[in-house]
Amino acid sequence: MNRTKMGPIEAYKQYWKNAFKLKGRSRRAEYWWPMLINFIITVGIAWLMGVLGIEYKIIMTISTILSLIIFIPDLTVTYRRFQDNGLSGRWAYPLFALSLFNTLLQDPQKYALHSSNDTISTIITVVGVLLVIIIVMYVLFSLYTMIKEGEHGPNEYGEDPKEI
């Protein structure tokens, strides 16, 4: 069996080439190299804007635009990584939905403090804490899946990407 290696440049090309593809499988390199490259690009741009003294609002706008640009490819490569491990790619959806929901409800205490009803305040706080616990557990599960080597040989989601 020919198990080929994938370097950072090829992985990043595959990341963009397969940006809208849910079918098939993605190997670890196709997931991790783009994550690292996108992180370096984002940090580099933020650093450059900070050095240039660019206004915080503009930095946040550019950061949001970058996040939107990589959202779909991040989702689809994560989807295919789950499939490479023999799991439904749909496991990626809750991860992105929970992250989005957590972003919208970043500080459950902030909402609880504005409630005049102690019961509602308690419920909101408990739900917020439970949500954070669920997200942490889910992120750990997802991280394990993204790190874990995919199944050898073909599986129900396609051929082994290392052998293609």
Automatic annotation (TrEMBL):
Record keyword Transmembrane helix present: yes
InterPro entries tied to this protein: DUF805
UniProt keywords, alphabetically: Membrane, Transmembrane, Transmembrane helix
GO-annotated cellular components: plasma membrane
Protein name: DUF805 domain-containing protein
A Pfam family recorded for this sequence: DUF805
Transmembrane segments: 31-52, 58-79, 91-108, 120-141
Source taxon at top rank: Bacteria
The keyword Protease is assigned to this record: no
